[in-house]
Amino acid sequence: MRPAHQERPARPLLIIGWDGATPELVEPWMADGTLPNLAQLAKRGAYSPLRSLVHPLSPAAWTSAFTGLNPGRHGIWDFGQIQPGTYEVAHTDASMRHGATLWDVAEECGLRSVVMNVPLSHPAPKPTRGVFVPGLGATELEGACWPRDLAGLIKTEAPGYAIDVNSYDHADPAGFLTALHDMVDSRSLVAEALLRRERPDLFVCTFVATDRVQHAFWQQSALPTGDGTRLGWRFANAVKDTYVRLDAALGRLIQTAGPDATVLVVSDHGFGDLQGDIYLNSVLEEMGLLDVWRPDEAPSGLLKALTRRLVDKLPPALQPGRAAPQEHQPRFGDIRWEGTQAFARGLFGQIWLNLRGREPLGQVEPGPEQDAILSAITTRLLALRTPDGRDPLIDAVFRGGELYEGPLQDEAPDLVVVPRDFRWMTRSGREIGARGQLFGPAAVGHTGNHRMNGVLVAGGPGVKPSDELPLQRLLDVTPTALALLGIEVPRKLDGKPMADLLGCDVGWTDELPWRAPPAPNRDTDPERLAAQLEGLGYLSR
Ligand SMILES: [Zn+2]
Questions:
Q1: What separation in Å is there between the alpha carbon of 369 and the centre of ligand 1?
Q2: Which end of the chain has fewer surrounding CB within 10 Å, N or C?
Q3: Nearest-5° angle of CA 343, CA 352, CA 421?
Q4: pLDDT band at 309 (very low <50, low <70, confident <90, very high)
Q5: What per-residue confidence (pLDDT) applies to 415?
Q6: Do the beta carbons of residue 236 and residue 431 sit within 8 Å?
Q7: Architecture of domain 13-272+449-511 in CATH?
C-alpha cells in the first residue's frame, strides 16, 4: 500500500457517522434551517441518499463502510454470530473481522488517525501513531482505548462519557432522553479535544444517538405535534432535538478542523416506522421443520407427540407458547436439533438449514433435499400477509449466495428474508416456542426500524460541488476516503471511489490491504455486553 502521487490530498479528512440518519428527515430539515451546519456543508459540496446493504444492520453496515468489503469478505453479519461447526452464538466483535479498515490502511501509509466510537471496531490492533476510542461492542473504555491511558483522560475531560446509552426505559422516557443528550454532548466534547490536540490526517467519529432515539420515539415524532397521545405530545420533538444537537456538534468539529478539511457525514442505514416483530420460527415449526423442547413436554418421542396432540386441542389461550413472548420459556438453546431441519436466528430475517456435514447434528442432506426445503420455505414465506391481510408480509427471500461473494460467503444465512419495507423485524430467536403465533409486539418497545437508504453529505477541497448527486453506496465510502487521502485504491475492494463526488485524481493498486485480526477481546465482560445488547433490542437470551 503506497500513497498515490497526488498533488494536494484532502487532509484532514473528517468522516462523521450519524447512525441511522435518514433522508426522510434530513432532507426537509436541511431545507427549513433545522440543521444549518449540515445544510451548509451540502451547499458547498453535495448531498445524496446512501444505499446500505442487506441487511441494513450496524455491525455489517459500518464494517462494510470502513473496509469497502461486502460481508462475504469481511465476515461480520449481525450482533450475534453462529460459530461455524457449532450451535453456539458468539457476540460479534472486530476480532472476527477479515480485511483492513480505512484507518489500518491510513496508518500503513504513515498517516495519523483518530477513530472514535465506530460500532464493532473494538478490539483494535495497537496503532503506532493513531488514537482509538471503542464504540458499541465494548462496555468499558478502560483497556479498550489506544493509547491505554486515554480512558483516564476522557473520564477527566468528560466525566459522563458513555460508549452507549442504556436501554429505553418506558417508566422514564425523559431520563432516557437526558442520558442520550449527555452522551452526545460528552462525545462531542472529547471529539473536539482530540481533533484539536492530535491534528490527525483522518478523523472518524460515529454518533449513535440518532439510531437510539429513532428506535424509541419514531412513533411519537410521526406528526408535527406527536402521535396524539400524552406521551406523543411530550416527546414529539425527541428525534428532532437529537438531530439538532448532532448538527451543532458537527458545526463545532468543522470549525475546529479548519477550512482545509474535507468532511463526509454518512449514515449506515435510514429509518422508518416499525409495526412489530414477526416470528419466522413459528412458520418453520408449523411446516414441521423445527422442533423445540418445552418444559411442559415429556422428552420421550411418543409421549411428546401425544402431549403435543393433546395440547393442540386446547383453546389457543391455554396452549403453552401462546402467551406474551416474554413469558415463553423455550429459547434458542431449547431447539431439539435431531428433529430440526431449519431455524431462524438473527435480526431482520435470517434462516439456516440444519445441514449434514456443516452443523453438528445436521438433518438435511446437501443437494436436492437442501434445495427443496429452501424452495418450500421461500414459497411459504412469500405467501404470508400482513395482519390486515392487505399486503404481502415479505418483500423478498434471497439465497445467501445470491447476495454476498467472497471466501466467507458460506457463512451467510441460507435464506435472507426481507420483511415488507423493513417495517417488521425478527428478533434473534426470541420467539422460539411461540407456536402458531406469527406476530408479536416489538421487543423493548421500539416503534422505529432501519431502512435501506441512509444519507451522505460531503464538502470541502476534495469534493466536486453538485446539486444533483445521484444515489451513492455505503460500500464506496472507504475507496472514496482513500482517494481523498491520496492513497492508492485497491482494485479488489468491492466498493469503488464515488466518481461523481470526487474532485481529485484516483490512484490504483492491485494490492489488497490485509491486516491480521486483533487478538480476541477478553477485556469485555460478556454478561454486561449481553445486557447492553439486550437492552438495545439487538439480542435475546
Ligand atoms: Zn438501530
A1: 36
A2: C
A3: 90
A4: very low
A5: 97
A6: no
A7: 3-Layer(aba) Sandwich (3.40)
